[in-house]
Amino acid sequence: MLIPIEIATFALDPGTNLPVVVLKETSGNRTLMVTLDQFEARTIALNSLDVNQELPHTIDLARLIVEKMGGKFEKIILEDRDGGLCANLSIRHGKQTNHWTCRVSDGIALALRCNLSLLVPESLLIKACPEQDLTQAQKLGRTIAAIDTLRFGEFIIE
Fold first, then answer.
1. Do 89 and 99 touch, CB atoms closer than 8 A?
2. Can you list the alpha helix ranges (DSSP code H) found in the chain?
3. How far apart are alpha carbons 14 and 33 in whole angstroms?
4. Which residues contact 1 (CB under 8 A, 6 or more apart)?
5. Up-side HSE of residue 90: CA atoms within 13 Å toward CB?
6. Strand arrangement of the beta sheet that strand 2-13 belongs to
7. What residues does each domain of the chain span?
8. Would you state the torsion angle of the CA atoms of residues 62, 35, 123, 126, taken in this order, to the nearest 10 degrees?
9. Do β-strands 2-13 and 117-121 pair in parallel, antiparallel, or remain unpaired?
10. CATH code for 2-154?
11. Tell me, what DSSP letter sits at residue 50?
């Protein structure tokens, strides 16, 4: 099942000092973090703020070429491929739909610029947020199992 997602926020990963975009499911709380380089982050941020530049970005050129040739972007699906994320672009031309793979950052930027649905398989959200699909009892069980038994004397039950 494909889940619609949207940009929740931008942040800086303190461990790598690289920018990340946090994607959130539109009708839920699960999130997916995507690490970007500085240029990719700038492009996505400018698109999310709808800032127009003197010269078009590469994604604007891609959109113009596809449209001038009679095509239309339909949707963008973020997928797990070989342990990393990629974006699958669906482009319709007449009755035929073609699929192209690109960098996840370009897919996100295109989705923003073209006002497209940005989708992710539910399995990817489950993989990114395994704790959010657990019941309260399962979460408590994991928390208790993770406690170092040598430290029990340090806890006070109120």
1. yes
2. 38-48, 58-68, 104-114, 122-128, 136-146
3. 13
4. 121, 122
5. 13
6. 31-35, 18-25, 2-13, 117-121, 71-81, 84-93, 96-102
7. 2-154
8. -150
9. antiparallel
10. 3.10.690.10
11. T
Digit-coded pLDDT (tens) for 72-97: 999 999 998 887 889 999 999 999 99
Tokens of 27: 């009708």
pLDDT tens per residue across span 16-68: 888 888 899 998 888 888 888 777 777 777 777 777 777 777 888 888 899 99
Tokens of 158: 């109120």
- Rounded to whole angstroms, how far apart are CA atoms 105 and 85? 9
Q: b vs e for 108-141, b when ≥16 Cβ sit within 10 Å of the residue's Cβ?
A: bbbbbbbebbbbbeeebbeebbeeeeeeeeeeee
DSSP of 74-108, one letter per residue? EEEEEEEETTEEEEEEEEEETTEEEEEEE-HHHHH
- Which string of b and e fits 96-106 if b means at least 16 CB within 10 Å? eeeeeebebbb
Closest C-alpha to 34, from 78, 4, 81, 2: 78
- Give φ, ψ of 56 to 5 degrees: -70, 150
Q: Are 19 and 38 a contacting pair, CB within 8 Å?
A: yes
